[in-house]
Amino acid sequence: MSQTEIQIEGLEVFFGDGHERTRVVHGIDLSVAQGESYGLVGESGSGKSTVLRALVGLVPDWHGAMRVGGESLQRLGRSKEFYRRVQMVFQDPYASLHPRQTVDRVLSETLALHGIRDGVDARIDRLLEQVGLGGGFRFRYPHQLSGGQRQRVAIARALAPEPKVLLLDEPTSALDVSVQAEILNLLSDLRSEFGLTYLMVSHDLGVIGHMCDRVAVMQTGEIVETLEVDAMRKLQAEHPYTRHLLDSALRSSGHAGMAEVQRTAG
């Protein structure tokens, strides 16, 4: 049986101070096995991205228990070992890259930050190859790259410290439809090649169907249903909100949304 990589118990997250302090995540539990791809799906404001941000320490006001790789996480700060083990890929690749830094500098500084100073040139070349970019991209600036190429650089940066876990926050939603599938296929290939564990946030059931083994459905800060992706593909949801999301996907583009989910079943 696979070991647990991510364990969350009774997680509550709060925003604001004093009388304006508001609970936005309501005591959720989830468990992700090593090597699993686990999805969090829900509409805007459901709290799904907040869960990722709490994991990486970007949200300080939380209660409950979170463990990654057996390490218990504290409310403030994360260890160097945590950031070697866990990396995050954000929604907007342009915003996540410094506009005045070349790809080479982005990757070399990331390696240095994690104490990796030997064989940097070879490591950068290898990272670019792993994400489908050649050496010709090494000294380009973000404005010289397409959206898909920028996201590949962001993925290369996440891979630089050789993590075990990638947290994926809507990694294709800011990209043109024509390149979304390319990035998703790249992420699937990297997971297979390196045995990575994914915790992925998306509002798109087609993306979840393509990428994930299990999915937790979030509504207004709560997990209302957890199901195998195979069951989701077969429209076997029980909770009314999950059924609403599935129905919306079916209606969105002449059944194209869930047809995409169902095509990934094989």
Write up this protein.
It is a single chain. This protein is of the alpha/beta class and 266 residues long. It has one domain (4-263): Rossmann fold. Helices cover 38% and strands 25% of the residues. It has ten helices and ten strands. The protein has helices spanning 48-55, 80-85, 103-113, 120-130, 147-159, 177-194, 205-211, 229-233, 240-252, 256-263, and strands at 4-15, 22-33, 37-41, 62-68, 71-72, 86-89, 165-169, 197-202, 214-219, 222-228. Strands 6-7-8-3-9-10 form a six-stranded mixed beta sheet, with helices on both faces. The longest helix is centred in the last third of the chain and has 18 residues, at 177-194. The protein is globular. The chain starts with a strand and ends with a helix. Residues 254-259 and 261-266 have low confidence and may be disordered.
Spans where pLDDT lies below 50 across 5 or more residues: 254-259, 261-266
State the CATH class: Alpha Beta
Total count of strands: 10
Largest sheet: 6 strands, mixed
Helix content: 25-40%
The helix-strand sequence is EEEHEEHEHHHEHEHEEHHH
Number of DSSP helical runs = 10
Q: What is the CA-based Rg, rounded?
A: 19 Å
Residue share in β-strands: 15-25%
Task: Give the rounded overall mean pLDDT.
Answer: 92
CATH architecture: 3-Layer(aba) Sandwich
